[in-house]
Amino acid sequence: HAVKGVSFEVGEGEIVALIGANGAGKSTILKTVSGLMHPRSGSIHFCDQDITHAEAFKLLRTGLAHVPEGRRIFQQMTVQENLEMGAYINKEVSAQDLEMVFNYFPRLKERRKQVAGTLSGGEQQMLAIARGLMYDPELIMLDEPSLGLSPILTETIFGLIQEIKCQGVTILLIEQNAFGALSIADRGYVLENGRITLSGTGQELLHNEKVYASYLGGNA
Question: What stretch of H or E contains 173?
Answer without folding.
Answer: strand 170-175
